[in-house]
Specification:
30S ribosomal protein S20
Length: 45
């Protein structure tokens, strides 16, 4: 894997993590939060 690909992959992962954190903070019910966590876990593996 080239250095550019590694940087791009890391940047994409950071962007996804920030989006998930933002969604979790703005989720107003535990059910929505649990669903977001399930989706996040699916994408991380």
């Amino acid at each position: 894997m080239s250095m550019i690909e590694r940087i791009r992959t890391r940047r994409d992962a950071n962007r996804r993590a920030r989006a998930i954190e933002h969604a979790l903070r703005s989720a107003n019910s535990p059910a929505v939060r649990n669903e977001l966590l399930a989706i996040a876990q699916r994408h991380m593996s």
